[in-house]
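Quick question about two entries, pasted in order.
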Amino acid sequence: MMVLSMERWVGKVAVVTGASSGIGAAIAEQLVEKGLKKGKFYPVTTDVSKEEDILRAFAWVKENLGPVHILVNNAGIGKTEHLHDGNIEDWKSIFKINVLGLCIVTREAIKDMKANNIDGHIIHINSILGHQVDPGLSVYPASKFAVTALAETLRLELNSLKSKIKITSISPGLVDTEIIPPHMKTEHFYKEGNVIGPGEVADGVVYVLSTPPHVQIQELTIRPIFDFFVKTV
């Protein structure tokens, strides 16, 4: 029987991007409650679309907190528009944060883990839309499909290096956060079973982190019982 425990992470450092609100804030709160870095939250203002900001943030973590054991790539943006008349600057912003920023943050975390011989854990907060598309969301699903591919590519790279660093992609369905456009938040949106909360995604993060070192949850899907993104024929 698999024993779930967060004990080995107590007092260790977790980096969570996009932790100021929504899913990221819920994840940071739960990790603090579980004793990460002696149960304290350290906010570091960072623009994950800028490599220099990311490098500066990791330098601060290294100097003030110590080596990284856990990375949760949660920062992400989306926009409700169409491909046939979309805006190139919006497209660039989405890919800079959802894809390139994620890659840079991941690179820096793994570099730190390897330098300190740490069998850490990388978690990408992906999306149901990283596995199926939905019209009206422009390049957002494409950016999340990229996250799916990046998680698997990284897993294979780490395997080839005989590394024990784990990688998990967590794909939530519709979550009640600020990324959801106001026009979608109707009475129907909030009916029981249509939407999940940020805390339930955070529960998923704690679950995958609680697995024994030899167990890797490669992909975890968390969706409401009546999923908005399920298409009926």
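Here is the second entry:
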Amino acid sequence: MSQASRILPILLSGGTGTRLWPLSREAYPKQLLPLASNKTMLQETVTRVLAPTHFDPPLIIAHEEHRFIIAEQLRSIGISNARIILEPQGRNTAPAAAVAMMVALHQDPEALILLMPADHVIRDVEKFRQAVALGAGAATKGQFVLFGMKPIEPATGYGYIKMGDPHADIPSVHAVEAFVEKPDQQTAERYVSSNKYLWNSGIFLLPARELLAEFKRLEPDILTSAQEAFTRARHDMDFLRLDAEAFSRCRSISIDHAIMERTQRSVIIPAEFDWTDVGSWSALWDISPKEASGNVILGDVIAEDVKMSYLRSEGPMIAALGVEDIVVVATKDAVLIASKQRDQDVKGLVERLRAEGRKLATETVRVYRPWGFYESIHDGERFQVKRITVNPGGKLSLQKHFHRAEHWVVVNGTALVTRDQEKILLRENESVFLPLGCVHRLENPGRLCLNLIEVQSGPYLGEDDIVRIEDVYERQ
């Protein structure tokens, strides 16, 4: 490829993956989880666009709440050149694409942007790269390239695209005749048998200059707000934080509806790489290794006379007897039991939990922070017990509480504790008491993770009873 056709990979990491509840939640969505391999889906997606010389360093657009988790996941696989843009709130993919387009044009007016979700599974990476290279030929001619997947079943959970005639200059590229929303079963069967319809993968290769022109023509309000959010963005450590007020004015709409379905530039490539968007537990069952009875079994599970099921425990033991075609997923605070045929409806269950004010609809037991994580072990009247893990070099904010005292007991590692004017070094099996109102900080000066038990006591134990005096992560 020529220098003019360099590609900027844009990874969209704003989804919540509610159909994979209780493992995937808003606070820690599916792209941050190792669902299909020992790497997280985000890590797999980044790795996919690293090797070829025509790819620029990837750009990740993510919710600001996930910024430190994403940065740590990239660091752990040796990636230091990726850039991270923070959305103050999710506004679907069109505003994110508009911001990505501005970044691309700023560095190269001839740039192509490869817009793709960070939560898909693609097994054959080389075929994926070959499809992108083929698409670049059309994109450099001003076409908006979609990658369509040949249906292997009449799935009702995907959008479909009807292929038109082959492109005059590139026979492997077809015109787009129609976009179709998720069909019913009978319609999906008709689409599959016709061989004219492809699944919409949600992956696009777009020439930035022409995309700007189409935003001006079709969605000028989104473009104006996105431009303002980008122009007024501020650097926050290694992140670029979009302006919240301007970005909130962007209409929440997908790039499909805003641009791709309305432009005359759309073309589609029938891609041959193995792909799934892992949009349900049954989709994950499809791609996972199975034992003799067709079961996927992960974690502490005992199964007797169980067939064609997905059983996964990251909490209590699962014991299953005499069932088939079911999904059972257990975490520390919730258990999902569903028919594989109904797993698309898990999203509705989550909405019901959210409406009832259940925190487990969106939050996880383990709460991640830039320095590590904590999780509640037990709580009672006027007390709470937590496990705290601080990464090497991690440092909590200098803070105080108005309503609680704390007692820290080091389980392993080394802790450097600030308590008012004191500096205290603690090792395994040593402890310190932090009285109500004292100014304190916890640091890990060692090379291994620090694990400690925190016992809180007082009339109010909420996380909002924190007055931050100083914070190296610049949190409010």
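Reply: The mean pLDDT is 94. Residues 404 and 458 are 4 Å apart (CA to CA). Hope that helps.
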